[in-house]
Amino acid sequence: MCTSLTYENGRGDHFLARTMDFAFELGGQPVFMPRHQTIHGDAGDFTTKYGFVGGGRNLGHYVFVDGVNEFGLGAAALYFPQYAKYQTEAADDKLGLAPHDFTAWAMGNAKSVADLRELVKTVQLLDIPVSLLGLTTPLHYIFSDPTGDTAVLEATDDHLQLIDNPVGVMTNAPQLSWHLQNLSTYGTMQAAERPLHDYMGMELKTQGPGTGALGLPGDYTSPSRFVRTVFNRHYSETAADTPTALNTLQHLLDSVTIPKGVKLKPDGNSDYTQYRGYMSLDERAYYMEPYDNLELQGVKITDKMLSDWDTPMEYPLDHTPHVSHLN
């Protein structure tokens, strides 16, 4: 399970960030994919036009779960169990894609969210498993670009379309429309304190600050993570620049980051936040923060990479915890 959110700093720069929560070790790392590639996807070959960088792994071909392309289009795939519906085969006039290949196809072929709105009409997602897991991954996707345009794709029938996301947050099941309606349950919460009222002449004493958010859910279910992220995103102080925006996003994701052992599956394995990914859309940069090293490790797309490189490049992560000694 995962959480994602968009963010805008005080200069108008846009960001997309996410947690990658899973029990099975995915082994992702930053990978740069050059322009004009033919990818041998699990539903058949597809081509890309644009370069992009993101969290990927070579499974015979590179599979990406998030990233940003040369135009600043950011993407992230999140689990969508019991709701994703895929086709058995593609229509004659459409390109069939495995769900786990859709993120790479989108970043490799769309310049913006508006561009992607039209392009998704030409593809269908097929019920094809990913080799790493041996199952078809139920996914939905969030996209954002440097204009702030943000949308979600949920494959609930054979017709794919992007859904506007007014709050810039996505978690897991149920559908986005359900999560947006559920926000009304928490619509009276605020950052400011709420005054206490006397009851039958009894003067109530405070239990401490934080009453504005009293009732904010603190568990790790998808609905609770959605509400908590919307609240914190809405009330957090606006960061001035890119470094402080990335730092703010780290703090925002802290409230939904899952430590090992606190969220157990029926088989006894623990879902946990294997990494946190940060897409700096205007900067065309991707930062990854693995579970065991909370230092951001980034790759920025350069003009030279776009013009000269024709082979994918992997960037191994440093998993050593960093501690600074001040004496």
UniProtKB/TrEMBL annotation:
InterPro entries on file: CBAH/NAAA_C, Ntn_hydrolases_N, Peptidase_C59
Gene3D superfamilies (alphabetical): Penicillin V Acylase, Chain A (3.60.60.10)
Keyword Hydrolase applies: yes
Domain Choloylglycine hydrolase/NAAA C-terminal: 2-308
Domain of life: Bacteria
Family classification: Belongs to the peptidase C59 family.
Protein name: Conjugated bile salt hydrolase-like protein
